[in-house]
Amino acid sequence: MRNDPASTATALLTLVGGPANVTAVAHCMTRLRLALADPAAADEAGLRALPGVLGVVSDGTTRQIVLGPGIVDEVTAEVEARVADAGQLQPPGGWLAETGARLPEAAARLPEGEIRPAEGDARPAEGDARPAEGDARPAEGKALKTTLRRIANVFVPLIPALIGCGILSGLNGLLLNTGWLPGLAPALSAIASAFLALIAVFVGFNTAREFGGTPVLGGAVAAVVVYPGVARVTAFGTHLAPGQGGVLGALAAALLATRVEKWVRGRVPGALDVLLTPTVTVLVSGLVTLYGLMYAAGAVATAIGTAANWLLATAGAVAGLVLGGLFLPLVLLGLHQALIPIHTTLIEQQGYTVLLPLLAMAGAGQVGAALAVYVRLRHDTSLRTTIRSALPAGLLGVGEPLIYGVSLPLGRPFLTACAGGAAGGAFIGFFAMLGTKVGATAIGPSGWALFPLLTGNRGAGTAAAIYGGGLLTGYLVGFLATYAFGFPRRPRVGAPA
């Protein structure tokens, strides 16, 4: 039975030290992310024992609380409301507030409710890579992880639109191939393609918001990348192409705009800020985007597509084995979303990402491992109940309930689940070596939920058949590996301890 979001939010806030201890609130598809002023005040054991909580990931001052899809949105809204009532969340900022007053940069709002510490706050500033007290991790490693997470924060809010448009694109392809409803196909094509045509603007908006700039200025500069008029601009001896550089160019342009905006604002009088800051930001960043970033980002994007195709064509089975085997640890660390820019770049270039079906095999290995645990531990009623409740989500590609509720606490089944994912990835990669690529037109779903988004160079039907074979391989190997090696051997009677 599903827990009440309001009660869950109240219990969570109590266990993390109260609303006054929360400095930022955000969420992804399955996790609530809370930045804490005093991480030591959080009762992690209590959080893990809370009904509805599937797992807790500690990362410096941040606690990622795994709740699962759907419920995480409702609980986040309740948590944000309580933290805002406590006066912790600052109002949205930027270069011009609704009142016309110039708000401090520290009050600017981050994506999905994340808020920077207010001025005068003694906590490390946004993006500060200094280790927290008692944190023994190197500052460089922590800074890299923080950067990857923040880049992921740019793209995660775009996933619902990518999913919706991807499914409509697949439906449109089905109508075109079958000849059904010919009058509807152009409308579906326009609806499905419009978002991807302008995705650079959304990336620029989110980038500026995440990194402390004015979102609309980030979107304005990123819009240069997709503006049709850039075809009349010559850079490096050739005419630019609209969309050249794609989301990588938009990301770089918005990052530059944020830097320029901060630099200008710190040097102009307040009375001129409303005129000079946006003008100089758009002008300087726009020119650099046209005469440098679009060309460079285009070269990087082309290299990504070329490398992915070459890797699958020459070493597809090995690549699939490695990617499928290592994806669960990335999910465990919350770093899997850092791959979103690569997926998005491949979708822009080729119409689908060949990496997502390989990575999705990790979930198949996880399902197979959970089934083996269910069979082997038939007397563990509590664990079997957990598996029954988490298995539907696992089949649809949401792996956290099985990871945190089953395989990770047991230890060995997590490793054998990785083996199942590696086998499924190798299966799909093998067919890529034979010239049949399997791709996804959007990112987000995996497991059985990915079927409506599948396509490839031999058509959706062939792609679905190979992907289904990969899932079955992952299930089977995950099950057999876990059944045979996922549990400690019982000592023989009379054997030495």
Alpha carbon gyration radius: 24 Å
Helix tally?
Answer: 16
| Helix share, percent | 55-70%
Biggest sheet strand order reads 1-2-4-3
Number of domains: 3
- Structure classification: alpha+beta
Helix-strand string: HEEHEEHHHHHHEEHHHHHHHEEH
Calculate the mean pLDDT score and round it.
85
Give the overall form.
globular
How many beta-strand runs? 8
Strand content: 5-15%
Q: What's the end-to-end separation, in Å?
A: 44 Å
Major beta sheet summary: 4 strands, antiparallel
- The residue ranges in which pLDDT falls below 50 over 5 or more consecutive positions are 90-136, 491-497
3D architecture notes:
- This protein has 497 residues and is of the alpha+beta class.
- It has 3 domains: 5-89, Gyrase A, domain 2 (2-Layer Sandwich), CATH 3.30.1360; 156-305, no CATH class; 351-485, no CATH class.
- The chain has 16 helices and 8 strands.
- The strands form 3 sheets. It has a 4-stranded antiparallel beta sheet.
- The protein is globular and about 70 Å long.
- The two termini are 44 Å apart.
- 46% of the residues are buried.
